[in-house]
Write a structure and sequence with these properties.
By secondary structure, the chain is of the alpha+beta class. It is about 15% helix and about 45% strand.
Length: about 280
């Protein structure tokens, strides 16, 4: 009996020790504490969509370039200024080095957008290379290179542009935090292409993917769920959604939704069963 008791005690002790090791070494699943990555991605997307809209003010369905921008805020120069020579360089200047100008789309801007057109806006295979100099969108410093290529018409007869943004950085007005962003998107020119010299009824639908690092240091990737709708006359993306996956929390995706089409600065982020209201700049 004594020998069997010792064996039973030893077995129980080993089981208890193994249980201790398992429970002591098992890590609690990490859960995200904020949704700043989704907000930073949305704001970067909105800022670069705004740059696209400004380029649209100097060229539209008329397929010509003009030095008077429809936004009522910038001045533009075109070199060479003729109807036949390509490439052309368009330089758009907003405000002064320290003073914003308020565009008709409700966005305060300052700085310079430079766009080099390899050919006319609506010609297939035209490439527009966009660079920024001391450029601010509602006092956020926006940096990066945007390359826009005309891919021709889709089955609906709409022009499609491939847009690649690389090396983008968005810094907050205080200069204390910044996020980085890259994207490869297709933008369908879905409406407004038949109204010459009126950009404000133009509509673009954005699909694609992106990646970046948020202002809190969180790396992430996104895919578009439904096309993001850009109304040129509105400061913000008005509808569509994307899913964002954070590198440190792959099992807690964030579903970001811009709404049903209303022109406002609000959106929602669904994270771990809770819906948060997001305010865009």
């Amino acid at each position: 009996m004594k020998k069997n008791s010792i064996k039973l005690f030893s077995a129980l002790a080993l089981l208890a020790f193994a249980t201790f090791l398992y429970t002591g070494c098992k890590k609690e699943e990490k859960k995200p504490t904020d949704y700043s990555s989704a907000t930073d991605n949305a704001n970067a997307d909105n800022a670069f969509a705004g740059i696209w809209k400004q380029i649209s003010t100097v060229t539209d369905s008329s397929n010509t370039l003009r030095s008077t921008a429809s936004s009522g805020c910038s001045t533009a120069s075109i070199t060479p200024f003729d109807l036949t020579t390509w490439p052309k360089t368009v330089v758009m200047t907003f405000g002064t080095a320290t003073t914003n100008c308020l565009g008709s789309d409700g966005v305060n801007r300052r700085g310079t957008i430079t766009a080099v057109f390899s050919g006319p806006y609506q010609d297939s295979a035209t490439v527009i290379t966009v660079t920024l100099s001391n450029y601010y969108h509602n006092d956020y410093h926006v940096e990066g290179t945007q390359t826009i290529k005309n891919m021709g018409h889709n089955s609906a007869g709409h022009l499609v542009f491939n847009v690649i943004v690389s090396g983008a950085t968005v810094t907050n007005p205080a200069g204390t935090a910044h996020s980085t962003w890259n994207t490869n998107q297709n933008r369908e020119f879905a409406a407004g292409y038949n109204t010459n010299f009126n950009i404000f009824d133009d509509v673009y639908l954005i699909t694609g993917n992106a990646n970046g690092v948020s202002s809190s240091g969180e790396a992430y990737t996104i895919v578009t769920n439904s096309p993001l709708r850009v109304n040129v006359g509105c400061p913000w993306i008005v509808s569509g959604s994307f899913t964002l996956t954070m590198a440190d929390y792959p099992t807690y995706p964030i579903v970001f939704d811009y709404g049903a089409g209303t022109c406002d600065a609000t959106a929602t982020a669904l994270l771990n069963g809770t819906t948060y209201t997001i305010y865009l700049y």
